[in-house]
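Running this now, will post back.
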Amino acid sequence: MAHAPELAPSILAADFAHLADSVSAAEAGGATIVHVDVMDGHFVPNITIGPPVVKSLRKFTKLPLDCHLMVTDPDQFVPAFAEAGADWVSVHYEACRHLHRSLQLIAHHGMKAGIVINPATRVDVLTQILPMVHHVLIMSVNPGFGGQKFIPFSLDKIRQLSDLRSQLGLNFRIEVDGGVDMETVGQVVSAGADLLVSGSAIFGKGNATENARRMLEAARGAI
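Update: finished.
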């Protein structure tokens, strides 16, 4: 089942000194989810933010907080993100020794569970686990840094996942993260994605409210 596209601005590209204002600006432009990139400097070559920032954000927005854990041992951190107020938590297929257990743990703590796959990981490795997830996040860049260029073969993976969703009669969301901007968003939505993570294109230049509005208009025009 296809869903209407939604925008999930990535706060990795926002002004951390005025984070609540940045989120409010994107929300005013139609954003309906806040994407939180959590990096440990081990699974990916960068360190970002953790539960304290999520806890602070929770006080200032009612939008779902979509926490993408790019960490070596995600199970260790799931309870802390639940306590901080996260709504969605996604974990990497590549990082989980026991993915089924990790997804159960997220659900046990009252959050919606997602799976993430890196560019080099095939879609079909997820087939048996898809009934357990709220969303699948396809990385269209290698995780670790914002501002990277979209990897074109990601479109094939989005199409494959969309076809698989239809074949299995499932209703999970298809999220895409990496290089989603005004040049690529139409192709991404046409391929089957409905949760659009975008950081630099929203917060990098200009007005975040207007950038979000234009991005959503382009996404809806591609349906």
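The chain is about 35% helix and 20% strand. More later if anyone needs it.
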